[in-house]
């Protein structure tokens, strides 16, 4: 891929400190140009949720922000709200009883997604029944767990999690940089997850990077076989490593950045699919894995998914972009092989125990999301890039390109349908809303773009239904996540519901986007042709 034509290097810098972000958000012409910067590339999905008024970031042409610009959205029309802290008394640092509700919420909602810590061990450490790690690392771990739990069940008007996380963050010092142990990796990984949920993407990325180095420094990627390797401790290491690995691939795809962990050098086995009660520090051996869903099912099968797609991912974020035929072959072989390798109890439509319904759903949404992102450039080519040629030219392999486009649209439709069904039939809270918003926004951009460019298509009624369904879900998420309102404004600037009553502001925004679209189509967009081909060579 030819070098990107980006802004001066200083504009890659960023500052996500709360004071800097609040200052930049309250002043459109703030001198703090780094408030929400950083480099984001081809698959980036989250940048639209940041303060996109500030253009000091650089991103690949297939990122969601670039994608919106290509299809005619003036993203500078929208302002992203800032979270304000709810005061919490400092006594929360001293009284564990004040943290109980939040810690329970963490284990109920966050823990099944990423079982980074062992619940029984953690609760025993709270009661000082077993040894705790050093005081600073223990407080980092304890208050980040509490912050994640508080965040999971919070609303926009209740943000106690911010104060709890500040307590955890205050423990960070230069001495932390001089340690290496599993508790440190756990704390850093959880802090990274929390910051990502607050859309502090670069800060989250830094904490994750530190966790990576600390993990490799204690050899978590290695598999050790010896008589002194008790099953419980060996399995604890495996779980932590694959949580780290999964999060790295998840974040790399989300931010469209290179993978940060080794691939071929990994020796650690996938975690066993066993119930917690079947393994404790005194267990001498594990006879067999469970033949049903456990806390570690999503982790194990998610690790296999991410390891499978890690071979194609570097090619998708660089150039030249793979041919449609290559991606179809990868899909039909590698991704489909992963799907068929899933045990019968964890396949797509199999009912799950209540504790594992959400993590099971997310695993399959991730697969659909990757297909959308992988094939999305061909949808952009269909509606936009091929018209850069006059007259428009057809690809050399039209059958493969058309199949790629169809699969993208199908994955988007299935995502919207399954996510909507899940959201409407299960408990709704801030954590589920965050993931639902993430996946459904990426999906709904596909039918919204199709309607914008081909409103007379025979598929238009289906596209219209998909967009309406997604909009209803996103509207209901606004109670928990103000970014949902931001996403709605973007969607409505792309899509006009024939049965809705437009406000004057909606009309102005939509007209502005349409004007921008018409102005931009005849002119080459810098770097676009490098990624979305306008030639028949796709």
UniProtKB/TrEMBL annotation:
One Pfam family name from the record? Fungal_trans
Q: Which UniProt keywords apply?
A: Nucleus, Transcription, Transcription regulation
The biological processes this protein is annotated with in GO are:
DNA-templated transcription; positive regulation of transcription from RNA polymerase II promoter by galactose
The record's annotation in PANTHER family points to: REGULATORY PROTEIN GAL4 (PTHR47424), TRANSCRIPTION FACTOR DOMAIN-CONTAINING PROTEIN-RELATED (PTHR47424:SF2)
Q: InterPro entries from the entry?
A: Fungal_SecMet_Regulators, XnlR_reg_dom
Region annotated Disordered, chain positions: 501-538
> Where's the Xylanolytic transcriptional activator regulatory domain?
204-277
Q: Which GO terms describe its cellular component?
A: nucleus
Molecular function (GO) terms for this protein are: DNA-binding transcription factor activity, RNA polymerase II-specific; RNA polymerase II cis-regulatory region sequence-specific DNA binding; zinc ion binding
Q: Which domain of life, per UniProt? A: Eukaryota
Q: What is this protein called?
A: Lactose regulatory protein lac9 and GAL4-like protein
């Amino acid at each position: 891929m030819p070098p990107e034509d980006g802004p001066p290097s200083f504009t890659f810098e960023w500052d996500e400190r709360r004071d800097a972000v609040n200052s930049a958000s309250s002043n459109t012409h703030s001198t703090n140009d780094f408030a929400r910067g950083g480099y984001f590339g081809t698959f980036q999905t989250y940048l639209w949720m940041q303060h996109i008024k500030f253009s000091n970031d650089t991103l690949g042409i297939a990122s969601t922000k670039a994608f919106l610009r290509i299809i005619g959205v003036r993203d500078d029309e929208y302002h992203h709200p800032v979270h304000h802290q709810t005061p919490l008394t400092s006594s929360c640092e001293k009284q564990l009883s004040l943290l109980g509700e939040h810690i329970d919420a963490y284990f109920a909602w966050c823990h099944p997604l990423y079982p980074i810590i062992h619940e029984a061990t953690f609760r025993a450490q709270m009661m000082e029944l077993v040894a705790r790690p050093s005081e600073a690392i223990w407080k980092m771990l304890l208050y980040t767990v509490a912050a994640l739990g508080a965040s999971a069940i919070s609303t926009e008007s209740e943000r106690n999690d911010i104060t709890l996380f500040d307590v955890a963050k205050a423990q960070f010092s230069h001495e932390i940089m001089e340690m290496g142990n599993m508790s440190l990796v756990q704390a850093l990984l959880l802090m990274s997850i929390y910051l990502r949920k607050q859309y502090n993407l670069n800060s989250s990325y830094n904490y994750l990077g530190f966790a990576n180095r600390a993990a490799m420094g204690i050899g978590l990627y290695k598999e050790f076989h010896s008589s002194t390797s008790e099953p419980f401790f060996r399995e604890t290491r495996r779980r932590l490593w694959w949580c780290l690995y999964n999060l790295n691939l998840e974040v790399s795809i989300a931010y469209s950045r290179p993978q940060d962990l080794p691939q071929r050098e990994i020796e650690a086995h996938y975690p066993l699919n066993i119930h917690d009660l079947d393994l404790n520090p005194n267990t001498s051996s594990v006879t067999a894995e469970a033949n049903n869903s456990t806390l570690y099912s999503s982790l194990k099968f998610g690790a296999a998914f991410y390891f499978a797609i890690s071979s194609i991912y570097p090619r998708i974020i660089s150039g030249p972009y793979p041919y449609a035929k290559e991606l179809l072959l990868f899909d039909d072989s590698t991704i489909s092989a992963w799907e068929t390798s899933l045990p019968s109890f964890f396949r797509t439509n199999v009912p799950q125990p209540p504790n594992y319904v959400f993590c099971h759903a997310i695993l399959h949404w991730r697969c659909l999301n990757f297909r959308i992102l992988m094939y999305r450039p061909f949808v952009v080519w269909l509606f936009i890039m091929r018209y850069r040629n006059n007259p428009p030219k057809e690809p050399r392999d039209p059958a493969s390109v058309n199949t790629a486009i169809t699969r993208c649209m199908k994955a988007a439709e299935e995502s919207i349908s399954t996510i909507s069904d899940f959201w409407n039939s299960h408990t709704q809270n801030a954590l589920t809303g965050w993931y639902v918003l993430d996946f459904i926004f990426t999906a709904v951009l596909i039918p919204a773009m199709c309607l914008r460019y081909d409103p007379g298509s025979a598929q238009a009624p289906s596209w219209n239904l998909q967009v309406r369904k997604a909009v209803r879900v996103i509207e209901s998420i606004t109670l928990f996540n103000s970014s949902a309102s931001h996403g709605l404004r973007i969607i409505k600037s792309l899509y006009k519901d024939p049965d809705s009553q437009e406000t004057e502001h909606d009309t102005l925004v939509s007209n502005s986007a349409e004007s921008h679209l018409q102005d931009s189509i005849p002119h080459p967009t810098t770097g676009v042709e490098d990624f979305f081909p306008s030639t028949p060579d796709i």
